[in-house]
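Forum: Protein Structure Q&A
Topic: Joint prediction for protein chains with partners

I've read a bunch of threads here and the consensus seems to be that you should model interacting components together rather than docking separate models afterwards. I'd like to see that in practice. Below is the full input, 790 residues plus whatever partners are listed. Could one of the regulars post the assembled result?
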Amino acid sequence: MARPRTLLRVAALVAAAAVTLAACGTGAGSASGATLRWGFALPTSWDPVTSSTGNDINTISLVYASLTQLDEKATAVPGLAESWTYNGDGTAVTFTLRPNLTFTDGTPLDADAVKQSLLRGKTQQNSLLKDQLATIKDITVAGDRDVTLQLAAPDYQVPNLLAGKTGAIVSPAAFTKDAAAIPTAPVGAGPFRFESFVPESKAVLVKNPGYWDAADVKIDRLELTPTTDAATVVAAVQSGALDVSYIPGNQIPQAKAAGLEVDVIDSLQVNQVDVHSGLAPLTDRRVVDALKYAVDRRQIVDVVNAGVGDVAYQPFPKGYVAYDPTLDGLFAYDPAKARQLLTDAGYAPGQLALTITVNSVSQSTAELVQQQLQGVGVNATIKVVPPGSSTWQQEVYLGRKAQFALDGTVGRESPVQNLTVVYGEQGLMNTSKVSTPEFLAALDAVRRTPLDSPDYPTVLQTAVRTGVQMSPSFSLGTLPRVAVRNKKVSPLPHFLSQYRWEGVTVGSTS
Amino acid sequence: MLRPLFASRSGTISAVVLVVVAVLAAVGPWLAPHDPLLQDPRAILAGPSAGHWLGTDNVGRDVLSRLLAGSTLSLVAALEAVAVGLVLGVVPALLSVRLGRVFEWFSLRLMEAFVTLPFLVFAVAMTALLGNGLQQAMLAVGILISPGFYRVTRAAALPVATAQYVEAAVLAGASPWTVLHRHVWPKVVPAVAVATASLLGASLVIVSSLTFLGIGITPPTPTWGGMLATDLQYLFQRPFGPFVPAALIVATVWACNGIADALRDAPGRPAPRKVTAHVG
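Posted by a regular:
Agreed with the consensus. Here's the joint model:
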């Protein structure tokens, strides 16, 4: 009888030693061995060059570091580059890298690697970064740490532009060996090293001790899983299946009642209506303006998102440098004025018919807008675009079949980039594809103004004002990120542009 | 004709439930206390009250009125699917017995092919191809339940077609229509009736599943499945919300199955198989 008991003790000791060793192993760079389970969305591609949605920056930035990054107010600050300087006329910018940077595959992250990575974004056949990188005419390197971007025209937005996917640096050794592998096996120099990925299921990342800001990363292992049903998120966090996830505003009371912590984080995301002024009856500006007055933005924020967020009259949130306070209340809800404009345009109540195009998750907004339009005599029918990554593109962005599409911008690293997407002549969300020379000139003026110039906010806000007044499209409301977290996770930092994990700690599960 | 339904307690209860649901579907829109589409954004997700017996939904619409309006659409959609399945299943089944081996082989292979198609995927593909409407979705559902009717009808018709008294009738000069009408059809009808009741329940489940996913309907049109999907998003605010549309779906499907059982077990009738549709 004594022998099996001894064996059992030995086995227990071995198991305990193994667990201890394993904990030491995973705790590289941190004493806690902290694992964070994040319920979010897996990126459309782990390759920044082929990633197809703006939302991917939240996950792609886990494994890649960019030349610059955005601070809490979305202002460009040093990232891989510790500094940058422009030449006299703004046509060239030199980034100086931090010393001794390496990728997670062990290869050096030097000026030449930055050049190769950016050139791949410019030239790879299926690159979705070509438009953003078009402003870069040539790239030269000097030594290991200085890389100079020659620009096609003066453009002081480049440090902003390179703070996200566009400036995410991929290991040249990895993409030279097998570029097709990057979308599922990324190699970067971000806060985490990629460990494994099961499409549609899970990605596992471990802390990268070689990250330039590794001291601020307190998470040793991050498990990323997609959340498909918002109704189950609170239960998943409560049960411990997830540590952090996101919820719609109307689930905040439920999360708090479950004893969970909630962080409402202002974001660059703004919902808007894409109005196609090339499709009748929206060719008449009076009709377009009537629709702007007919929509009760406050009601939408209150009903759909339980009051989380603000009404918006421009594609930027309050507190951001591009936000122009003079636009507050422009086209504010005024059904009487809407009816008058429709009468002036020759439409008696009930005569005007319109189709509201919406994706499957924004039906409540569409139903509210439908009734609001009905209140001013517009008969609207709702067309739901089925889920799928390409269906919305085909219907709204590329097909341009939608008269009145409920859409939204997640924001961009550069406000000029965002204005171009929303109001630019070829902007994805500008379904009318019309821009005035005044707007394009205002946008150019922003590019020519240094970010640290005292005139920059005024010049930028002028461009925003010009775009808002020009465009048939109009903004509805801001959409803050609502993160729900287990109490063992410390509060999330409030960055306008994206989720960031620097400084976030995960306590013991016991 | 209806006597077999009342031969058992479950058959009687099922018939009563189905009649109640049918009456609701027929006159529900007139009984509705409010406009089922009228929103009151100041009273969203309200609990039951004198003004709103079942409360209000996420945009302040009266839930009872939407349920009543949704009954019509949900039931009519299920009936449409069954009608399509009946025509596409019963007719080829009878013809396969009469028209010889080539038609028989092709019709059998076609039905086998239909059986392999997953319901939801096929319905989604049909609505993508023909437009997102309930008629299109029900055409898809009807096609996919037709093998159920085909098999039952063929199984019932085959022994009759080769029976001696039928051969005698043919030899005596009876026309194919007479044979079908006088000898085959009476034997087939009970089996088809059982299949119809059973597949009506299955169709209702499929209709509810499709409308739950937003396929086949245009918002804000109310359906039981669509209401269930919306209510599930607001479980915390209205925990009882999904119960009523779910209970209506369950009760109606249960009643359809109960009637199918009662017809199948009717005294003095041969025992046709109960048919189930593969929902996948």
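The two ends of chain A are 35 Å apart (CA to CA).
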